[in-house]
Structure formats: structure tokens, C-alpha cells
Design brief:
Elements (H helix, E strand, L loop, with lengths): L2 E6 L4 H10 L5 E7 L9 H4 L10 H4 L3 E2 L9 E4 L3 H13 L3 E4 L12 E2 L1 H4 L17 E5 L2 H17 L10
Parallel strand pairs: 1-2, 1-4, 2-3, 4-5, 5-7, 6-7
């Protein structure tokens, strides 16, 4: 039995990537999508200008797009929101008991929100327990940005084996 998940910001490019990635995931099934007010009430297929090279998953096509409020969302929500909206929307979900896995930068440097790259620092997930002090029944977890993730996957084993003092990186 798969775990029902929701996608915040489902109609944008990052949301579309999440829909595509979860389509054949062995653990998760997208059952709920949410986006901005201009998409609310429409079917996902009508609300989305699909930009992926693969076809839109059949399971997502007829999902009704919801407002970004926790009302009927599954307990596990992946967020593809921009940082601005994420600052208000993600805590609203966490406060009501949802687990939010965020791609947004809004909470990446927040002391009680884990910035996870599971292959490198899975033990940091326990930092989320500090969020209970905020009165939240749920939690927010974040990932690093795309450049940092790739870089850290390469550097972590080198650092563990030999140590590193400095790394200078430029992204464009």
C-alpha cells in the first residue's frame, strides 16, 4: 500500500518534476495537488502547461487543484513553492500536523529545520523535533539547492577520507 502525498505548487516546473518523479515511486502516490488561486478548482490537466518531455501521468490528469491550505491535504506534502509563499504556507501545514518536505529556500538556514541530503547527513533529520517548541504538530524538512546537492555528493566522501579546509565554487 502506497502513502498518499500532496504537492504544493504542483502546476509549476518543480511541481511537475515532482509529479513525474512520484508517478512510479514504490512508496508514494500523488492524491492531492495545490497551486495558486488562478488554478484552484480546475483539473490538473486544465490548470497546467505541462513542460516535461514525458507525458503527464494519467493519475494526475484529473486531480482537482486545491488552494494551498491544509484542509484536505494528505499528512505528507512535498512543496514546490517559491520561497515567498512558502514562508507562510509551509508553517500552516506543519502547525496542523502535516510533514512538509520542501524544495523552497525559505527555511533552509533555520536552526530547527533540517537541511537534508540523506546520502550525506541523514542524522540531521532529528533536528526537526525542535520544531515542537513552535507548537507545530507536524514538521518541515528542506533539501539543498540543486548546485549544492551535486557538489556535496561528490565532496562528502573526500571530506570523510581526507578532510577539506576550503572549497571555492562558482555556479552560473
Amino acid at each position: 500500500m502506497k502513502i498518499d502525498v500532496g504537492i504544493l505548487g504542483a502546476t509549476g516546473i518543480v511541481g511537475q518534476h515532482l509529479i513525474r518523479l512520484i508517478e512510479r515511486h514504490p512508496w508514494f502516490e500523488v492524491k492531492w495537488v495545490a497551486a495558486s488561486a488562478r488554478s484552484v478548482g480546475k483539473s490538473y490537466v486544465d490548470a497546467t502547461s505541462w513542460r516535461m518531455t514525458t507525458p503527464m501521468p494519467d493519475a494526475a490528469r484529473n486531480l482537482r487543484v486545491n488552494d494551498c491550505v491544509p484542509a484536505n491535504a494528505p499528512k505528507l506534502v512535498f512543496s514546490a513553492l517559491d520561497a515567498g509563499p512558502a514562508k507562510e504556507i509551509e508553517p500552516a501545514f506543519a502547525a496542523l500536523g502535516h510533514v512538509v518536505v520542501s524544495n523552497a529556500s525559505a527555511f533552509r538556514m533555520t536552526e530547527d529545520v533540517p537541511l537534508l541530503l540523506p546520502e550525506v547527513n541523514a542524522d540531521h533529520a532529528q533536528l526537526a523535533e525542535k520544531q515542537a517548541a513552535r507548537g507545530w504538530k507536524g514538521r518541515i524538512y528542506t533539501n539543498g539547492n540543486c548546485s549544492a546537492i551535486t557538489l556535496l555528493l561528490a565532496l562528502a566522501p573526500i571530506e570523510r577520507a581526507f578532510g577539506l579546509k576550503n572549497v571555492l565554487v562558482t555556479t552560473m
